[in-house]
Amino acid sequence: MNHWLIMPIVLPAVLGPLLIMLGRIDHVLARILSLAGCVALIAISVGLLQQADSGPQTYALSAWVAPFGILLVLDRLSAVMLVLTAVLATVVLLYAMAGWDRRGRHFHALYQFQLMGINGAFLTGDFFNLFVFFEILLIASYGLMVHGGGADRLRAGVQYVIVNLVGSTLFLIAVGLIYSVTGTLNMADLALKVPQVSSDDLALLQVGALLLLLVFGVKAALVPVHFWLPDTYAQAPAPTAALFAILTKVGAYCILRLYVLAFGAQAGASAWLAQEWLLPAAMVSLTLGLVGVLAAKRLGQLASFSVIGSMGTVLTAIALFTPTATAAALYYMLHSTLAAAALFLLTDLVRERRGHHSDALTVAPVFAHRSLLAAAFFVAAIAMAGLPPLSGFLGKLLILQSAWPTPYAFDVYLALLSTALLGIIGFVRAGSTLFWKSTAQQGRIEAEGVSHSVLPWVAVGLLLSGIVALTVGAGGVHDYLSQTAQQLYQPQLYINAVLFPQGGQ
Amino acid sequence: MEALVASAVGVLTAAGIYLLLRGRTFPVVLGLALLSYATNIFLFAIGRLKINQAPILSDTALGYTDPLPQALVLTAIVISFAMTAVIVVMSLRSYLESGSDHVDGAQQNKEEA
Question: Where exactly are the structural domains of chain A?
Answer without folding.
Answer: 275-494
